[in-house]
Design goal:
Largest sheet: 3 strands, mixed
Shape: globular
Number of helices: 3
Strand content: 15-25%
Number of strands: 3
Helix content: 40-55%
Low-confidence stretches: 1-5
Radius of gyration: 13 Å
Order of helices and strands: HEEHEH
Strand order of the largest sheet: 2-1-3
Number of domains: 1
């Protein structure tokens, strides 16, 4: 009997594998995330964020609202950048 990871985690891992082939400026243990509604900004965040409940809530919301078929090719979060920065700054303080 295996453990089933949510589709959010699986997609994030797939995005990380794709990015690691094309992006050499992402440090080990991190993932590039594209954030924004109109103008995308690339952020590099620790992979540990993918298991944090607040970050997972954001990813689940993105999956429900937008799916995962995004032209940027990586993990794309179409929310306001200030919302993403606020969330990740709280996660950074907690870790």
């Amino acid at each position: 009997m295996g453990i089933h990871l949510p589709s959010v985690i699986l997609h994030a891992k797939q995005a990380l594998k794709l990015q690691s082939k094309h992006q050499t400026d992402v440090p080990k243990g991190h993932i590039a995330v594209f954030v924004g509604k109109i103008h995308m900004t690339r952020f590099v965040v620790p992979i540990s964020y993918l298991s944090h409940p607040s970050f997972l809530d954001l990813l689940h919301w993105v999956e429900e609202e937008f799916g995962f078929d995004h032209p940027m090719g990586g993990l794309t979060i179409p929310c306001d950048q200030h919302v993403f920065i606020h969330l990740t700054s709280r996660l950074h303080v907690c870790s």
